[in-house]
Design goal:
This protein is mainly alpha-helical and about 90 residues long. The protein is built from 4 helices and no strands.
C-alpha cells in the first residue's frame, strides 16, 4: 500500500502521526489472515488508546471515506463491515 492516500485533502485536519500509525497498521495487516485480522485490529486499538492516540468521529469518517475511494463495491462493503464490528465491540 503506497502512502499517497495520506495526502488526500479530506485528511488535512488529521494529525500526521495518526496517519503514519494507520499506514503502519495497514502494512502489518496485509500479512494477517482473515481470522487474525480482527484480534490484530482490537489489539492495535487498545494500544493506541493506552498511548493516548484517539480518533474523533470526524477523523474516522474522513479516513474511511478516503480508504474507500477507488475500491470495488465489494471491497467498500468489506471495509464497512470491519468498521461496524469495531464500533460494536467498542
Amino acid at each position: 500500500m503506497n502512502e499517497d492516500w495520506k495526502n488526500n485533502p479530506k485528511l488535512q485536519n488529521v494529525d500526521k502521526s495518526k496517519l503514519d500509525m494507520l499506514q503502519s497498521l495497514a502494512e502489518q495487516g496485509n500479512t494477517k489472515s482473515a481470522n487474525d485480522l480482527l484480534p490484530f485490529l482490537m489489539n492495535a486499538a487498545a494500544q493506541g488508546k493506552n498511548n493516548g492516540l484517539n480518533f474523533s468521529s470526524n477523523e474516522i469518517s474522513a479516513v474511511i471515506e478516503v480508504l474507500k475511494m477507488g475500491k470495488s463495491p465489494q471491497e467498500a462493503a468489506k471495509l464497512d463491515r470491519v468498521v461496524n464490528l469495531m464500533r460494536m465491540i467498542r
